[in-house]
Every structure is written in C-alpha cells, then in structure tokens.
Amino acid sequence: MINILLRSIITSLFIALLFALVLFFLNSYLDLNSLQYYFLISLFFCIFLSINSAYLYFIKIHREKSNFKSFNEIELLKSAAKYRREFLGNVSHELKTPLFNIQGYIETLLSGALYDKSVNKKYLKRTIKSVDRLIYIVQDLETISNLESDELSLNFNKWNLKNLINEIVDQFEIKVKDKNINLFQDKKTTNCNVYADKERIAQVLYNLISNSIKYGRKNGEIKISCHQSDNICLVSVKDNGIGISEKNISRLFERFYRVDKSRSREQGGTGLGLAIVKHIIEAHQQNIKIKSTLNRGTEFTFSLECVK
Q1: What is the DSSP string of the chain?
Q2: Which tops the pLDDT comparison, 42 or 249?
Q3: Other residues' Cβ atoms within 10 Å of the Cβ of residue 65
Q4: Whether 241 contacts 212, CB under 8 Å
Q5: What residues does CATH 3.30.565.10 cover in the chain?
Q6: Which pLDDT score is estimated for 101?
Q7: Alpha carbon distance 245, 248 (integer Å)
Q8: Is the predicted pLDDT of residue 188 greater than 80, yes or no?
Q9: How high is the pLDDT of residue 223?
Q10: What is the Cα–Cα distance from 125 to 139, expressed in whole angstroms?
Q11: Which label site among 4, 67, 167, 226 has the fewest CB atoms less than 10 Å from its CB?
Q12: Quick check: 155 and 194 in contact, CB under 8 A?
C-alpha cells in the first residue's frame, strides 16, 4: 500500500507541475497575480493527491476487510494504517520545504527582482538548488519503493571491491577539502573480488561516506576498509565524527528518521539514504551493522559475497 501511495504522490506532483506550465502559458488570458497562480497550483496538487490517495486507500481497505479472519489481522491493519499516516506526513513535510522555497523565490522574481541584477542570479540559483532537492527526494522515494516491492532487479556480476572504493573516494575529493577531512582507504585492505550489483553497492558506499562527511568533524578522518573472511568480505566505513547515542542507533535505518532534525536539514539530504543502504544490502541477502559512541565516532560494517 505504501508503494501505491508513493506512486500517487509522485504522479500528483508531476501533474501539478504540468498544470503549472499550462497556467503559465494561459496567464496572459487569465490575468492572474502570483499569489493566485501559486494558490491554484497548490490547490490542484492537494485535491488530486487527496482524491487519488483516498480512492486507492479505500480500495485497499475494502479488500483487506473482506479477508479478515481474526482479531490479530485487524490489529495489524490498524498498525499499517498508522504507519501509512506517519509516512505520508513525513513525505509531505519533506516535499513542502523545497516547494515553498521555489514558490518564495519565484514570487520575489516576478515581483520585480527578475530585473535586479544584484539578486536575480542568486535567487535563480537558489531556486535550482531547491528543484534539485525535490528531484533527489522523488528519486530516493522511487528507489526505496522499488526495493521494497522487489521491482528493482539486481545485476549481479564479479568485480573488484578495492577498485570501486578508490573510485568512490575520488568522487569526494572536493567535499572533504571543504572540511579538511582525511578520507582514505586502509592500506591493509584485502584485494578481493565480490559477486554483487556494482551500481547498487557504489550507491551504498556513496551514501555511507556522504553521511560520514556530513556529521564528521573538521580536520577529522574517514577510513574505508574491506577484509575477507572465508567467502565473506566485510566492508567498513569508520569516522571520528560526532557519533550517535545508543538510544538512537536502532532507528537509524528508518525512513526520514533524523537524530537531530534541525541539524540534519541544514546539512541537506533526503532522510532516506540509510534506509536505501539497508534495503540494498538486504536485497543481496547480506547484513549491515552499526557501532557508534557519542562524540567519538561511528562505524558502519556490511558484508558481501566473495568470489575467486
């Protein structure tokens, strides 16, 4: 049901954008001001999303009610309904921030700032940044939806893990310079080949390293290593950053969960990165673990199948 609602949200978002384009081209005939323009777009999005979600929801509820066999099933349905409400609330909150930013900057530009050379480029760049954030959220939602519904097929191949780690480390060269973080691969790393989806494991490494950089200390370090044990290769991403308290560790892989909400949003991201990591590793029939000490650092360790 969550996957159906995700598609409903994504569909509604893109239809609202199309509606916005239509209004934009018809605006010369309709003579709408900016507030009326964005009010109609927001209203159209909310109405379409509500109708679409309600229709899918009641169909699902009807089907589930027809198959009730015990009190336990009713309790499970109540729990699922609560989860859906919380999930929709989180999605709406994540989408609302970039949408309102886009709305604010465009309204300012339409009100005259478009012709002010001292601010027009700055506001346009900020608008693009918010659009990019919106795209990242939608892409991550689609990814996690496909992973949960088994619609995303994995492309298993034999490849060298050490080489991939080097490639990913190189991608963060500029980001680590900004915080003067020493990102490196352990010299004792085993040169092993693994049997996995290379693109998805690259995504896992990228998300984990990105997370370590966001919450790492200036002048800190992040060490990536892999060591073979029989037919299993253990990959570690370890930092000496701010760390995580024990009470929060069990919830880190939940979608949209943030230990410090205000700090996390300032750092960027969608709140889905670690959830995607967990789903990808579990889709490989492997495990991921966390060790962390507050104010001392965090280590993520996951396993992969080794091959000769």
Answers
A1: -HHHHHHHHHHHHHHHHHHHHHHHHHHHHH---HHHHHHHHHHHHHHHHHHHHHHHHHHHHHHHHHT--SHHHHHHHHHHHHHHHHHHHHHHHHHHHHHHHHHHHHHHHHTTGGG-TTTHHHHHHHHHHHHHHHHHHHHHHHHHHHHHTT-S---EEEEEHHHHHHHHHHHTHHHHHHHT-EEEE-TT----EEEEEHHHHHHHHHHHHHHHHHTPPTT-EEEEEEEEETTEEEEEEEE-SS---HHHHTTTTSTT--SSHHHHHHH---S-HHHHHHHHHHHTT--EEEEEETTTEEEEEEEEEEE-
A2: 249
A3: 11
A4: yes
A5: 156-307
A6: 80
A7: 6
A8: yes
A9: 95
A10: 21
A11: 67
A12: no
Does 126 or 168 have the greater pLDDT score?
Answer: 168
CATH T-level topology, domain 156-307: Heat Shock Protein 90 (3.30.565)
Strand pairing class (182-185; 193-197):
unpaired
CA distance 243 to 299: 9
What CATH number does the domain located at 2-148 have?
Answer: 1.10.287.130
Cα separation of 6 and 145, whole Å?
A: 7
Residue 172: what residue type? F
- Yes or no: say if 182 and 221 are a contact pair by the CB < 8 Å rule: yes
Q: How confident is the model at residue 263 (pLDDT cuts 50, 70, 90)?
A: very low
Residue 158 has a CB neighbour count (10 Å cut-off) of 13
Tokens 């995580």 belong to 244
> Mean pLDDT throughout 257-278?
67
Give first-to-last CA distance, the chain, whole Å.
42
Instruction: List, by residue range, all CATH 1.10.287.130 domains of the chain.
Output: 2-148
What is the mean pLDDT of the segment spanning 136-161? 80
Instruction: Tell me the pairing of strands 221-229 and 182-185.
Output: parallel
